[in-house]
Amino acid sequence: MTPKDYFLNKQNLLNAFVIVLLAGVFNTACALPAEDINDKVNGATLFEQKQGHLPLKNNNLRKWDVATVADLDQDGFPDILLNDHGFSLKLLWNNKGRFAKPYDLIMGDMHGITVGDFNNDGRVEIAVSRGGGSGGNARNTKFFSIGTDRSISAKPDLDTPMPFMRGRTVKLVDLNQDGWLDLLNFAFPSQEMKGESENYVFENKKGSDFIEITRLPAIKRDGQKTLVTDFNNDGLPDLIIYGNDRARAYQASKAFEYNDVTDTVFPSPLPDVTSINEIDFDNDGDFDLFITRSVEYQPGQTFFDKSQQLLGYYWLRGARKYPPFDAGSVIEFINFQSQWPTKNLYVGESAYPYEFEGETHIGRDVRLVNSDALGFPDTLDEKGAYIGYVGNDQWQFATATSSISTGVIKGVTAFPLMAKPEALSDIALQNNGGKFEDVSQRLGITYHVNTVASAVADINNDGYSDLVVIQKGDLIHPNTALVFINEKGKQLTLTASHGVTSTELGALGLGIEPLDYDLDGHVDMLVGNDRGKWHLFHNTASQNNFFGIYIPSSPETNCNAMGAVVEVLACSLLQKKKVGQTSAAYSLSANNALHFGVGSCDEPVTVTITWSDKSQATKTFNQLNAYLNW
User: Fold this and answer.
1) Which class for 98: exposed (0-12), middle (13-18), buried (19 or more C-beta within 10 A)?
2) Side-chain-facing half-sphere of 81: CA atoms under 13 Å
3) 111-152 tens-digit pLDDT
4) CA distances from 419 to 297, 404, 424 (A)
5) CB 155, CB 125: distance < 8 Å
6) Is residue 413 left, alpha or beta, with left meaning phi > 0 and alpha meaning psi from -120 to 50?
7) Rg (Cα) of the chain, in Å, rounded?
8) Backbone angles phi, psi at 110, to 5 degrees
């Protein structure tokens, strides 16, 4: 199609207008309010938020990674694990399409989560990577065992205990094609290790123990984010590791032996990566990649909207006195977050601590009158945040914290403008025989905006994988996702009428995970915002047919379903998906209920499963619009 032909098509012209409009707004690195986007394109929305189906108190809290999805009790409905970082890891049982009240699986500082029956005892295990208290409380990975009766038991240490570390990434995956789930267990580098690698690769000794078999090269700081994929399609999982530096590709030459092939497989360096997701854009049978990217917001970064009188701030560690801001006699803090031990808000010249009622780990709202906050202290002697009215309609604010501190101040009428963070572009890479080609422009990935995660799913059940991309956001506006509909592998078309918007202020986008939680054949979205809330968006998009299949362990070898590759042939259209596909950087879902849209096809469907140990089976199914057992 020539450019002239493209723009003669009225719908394409409208889509192009929206893309250009959004690109201009995104260059400011601000999330566009939902109503501004949804006014641009007519038509029914694709998703609606389901409040009662996710029974959380849903306070504004720190989050870690995306939701972890797995059928823990093996009843056919996917359950979820939600990590409110530094507070609790919650398990929500799925009661036939409605989630139960959350159960606190473990409290405290938790990071990566992975799920799988690693000892083949018929119970599902959960591995949780525990944080190390900024280096002062190194701990090892914790294991839980889940029964089909929903019983939960903490597993004792293995014969060879896991190493103590500042835990980050943990993923159960069969790395040597023997059918047993091995373990990736990566840490934030500790000063005590003096540069020695803490990227452990453990071999599963037939369920009895995990034995360290190798370590991947050491990385700096927050560089443990990992995608498990197979870019050369030889059956051995390859690894792409990213986070602190440019993404690096490690190809498995044989089991547990990895070669750095970064410069060979990628067309150019890939810096500032926040997530990588597998997607077969064109249904050609190999996994392409979609990469989200974002700059790190700098300590002291502010965002100001004069029309809304909202000032957002982002701080990391140390003390910072911000420029005075203009406001009236009353201001409000919205979603003020500064965690223990620097959680206090000190008011006025005497710096008296504001008395919060209830939980102080969550985001807190505060209303202050100037007469209760007169003056500002000369020194910031205590750790926390400071606010005071300094006269002439001006207020003074400062932070002195030992961890990230954020919030929004409402009622601000004037504040010095600060340069917006740089806005980056996401990248679509097509897999050509184990090497990747940048096809972003051709597919329509041309925007510039900071993004953090993506979900790959066939939203409209037409047989092609679509994309939902989460923006990082700017604290002071609702955060609206970017939703792309796949036009038969030729282009990704941005649609604005989708409904995936998080409205809480003071939050930053973090993760998204697709799941058909009620098994109605329409893939839903579970979104989590850092320093914000969890949101469940129900798919209302499609009347097309679908095919669902529960992927079992291999009948021939009892190989675990995790990592199994599934090909579905429906009316001459071939689709390929994998158990465990996710954009999670540190965690790994194990949802074995795979969904395939088949459009208007009503013919029998042929399914081929290739398990991680290379055992394979093929069956033909006559029934559509249901999830079927193998």
Assistant:
1) middle
2) 33
3) 999 999 999 999 999 999 998 665 567 888 999 999 999 999
4) 11, 20, 15
5) yes
6) alpha
7) 25
8) -115, 150
